[in-house]
């Protein structure tokens, strides 16, 4: 996938160069630039002038020049290869990895012909466009070796991949969304990747889609394409808004009309996020793929499905609905005031509810018939979350395996199930929310004094029963302290560190890398946000309930406790 990930290094600030002892690099060779490909729409690429090695440059200058030349992806990093000897130039690949850094320095290695590029990195992107972020002040060392070739210093050993200064990375790469299905094929789950901007993006996205989901979603989502699916050639042409995807015959082995329709839907959801793509055409080794029956229809899969705009809350020890500025008692439910109810939840579909007792030692459920039952007993239960498949999730921090999933019908499906997650061992679960599509869990967990935010796939069996979470979660690094996290859309969240004795600053974070800080609110002890357009964001203190207006908090006349959107 040589057109998949292009990258480079930015010029370091002069002051930083002076501090590191790096010399400036003379430039004499011809300027080369990124050139847009023409196979998929002729979109513009970010263009950067890169220069080859200067005659007589010393070894350190060659290493620095090689780093800078990674910006130019023209002709498969041709300028970067000028800094190498012929053997390395023939085998080195620039598209396998991109390290994103804030600062770098070149230092002498263990011997005269070895140098180390020291990077303070913020993240990296792999060949499939999967981005991994790192906490502040993370470091990485890249070793290279040099020798003289016909009297000039050249790099003879270097790992595959390139390095990019963070601000340059955002000019060359852009976030794109691939889509995979939940286990029921009713929902399309986003998988955000990073690819170079330009004409090769469409091809890179299709190849990454065929390779399968990112690690944090593996075994939690499914693809309409088999593992044998490949492009016949590494190109996805786009003409007049139509992307043509030519797949090998193995892609269609035993494929039904429904399977082909699911393939096309998955491709359309992924590629029509690009401005230049309106529709897709499937080919089987140059032959158009047609359905055997015109009557074949599939139910369109949902993307970012909205929650109801009515919240659940507690007022005067009773369940209430909060809708806009109104607070309305929930009808058809038993009197729960004797339990001193807290932290209610409402199912995304139907009329089921859950809540904790005041001591947070019991989880109670109310079914569609209005019947109350004890779902779970524990010692330190957290606010429940209810998914589309009928399961209620919570965590008991007094248990060895804290995460619990409770079926709606305990008579048919049994009692609460412990969800064993190895990477959460010895952690306290502060917050747990299941996404609207039911395929992902958003978790805030604390180990020692460090709180972390994770997104992990929910692994279910063929009957939809939760069996675990994926082994390689996506870790998010908020700019604000955190003890709670909520889904704001299928690819954005709101996080905050709630507390009644301080000014709380919540932040909205997108998986594409953007963030927005909400206005401070003194004594914020709760926050609620729902998936969908124009869903109000609510915040509460011990005595007042607010809605977000612009970036300000507007006080409501009435008050409800522990408000939450469905889910």
TrEMBL record:
<keyword id="KW-0732">Signal</keyword>
<dbReference type="InterPro" id="IPR019606">
    <property type="entry name" value="GerMN"/>
</dbReference>
<keyword id="KW-0449">Lipoprotein</keyword>
<dbReference type="Pfam" id="PF25976">
    <property type="entry name" value="LpqB_N"/>
</dbReference>
<protein>
    <submittedName>
        <fullName>Lipoprotein LpqB</fullName>
    </submittedName>
</protein>
<feature type="domain" description="GerMN">
    <location>
        <begin position="202"/>
        <end position="293"/>
    </location>
</feature>
<dbReference type="InterPro" id="IPR059026">
    <property type="entry name" value="LpqB_N"/>
</dbReference>
<dbReference type="Pfam" id="PF10646">
    <property type="entry name" value="Germane"/>
</dbReference>
<feature type="signal peptide">
    <location>
        <begin position="1"/>
        <end position="23"/>
    </location>
</feature>
<dbReference type="InterPro" id="IPR018910">
    <property type="entry name" value="LpqB_C"/>
</dbReference>
<dbReference type="Pfam" id="PF10647">
    <property type="entry name" value="Gmad1"/>
</dbReference>
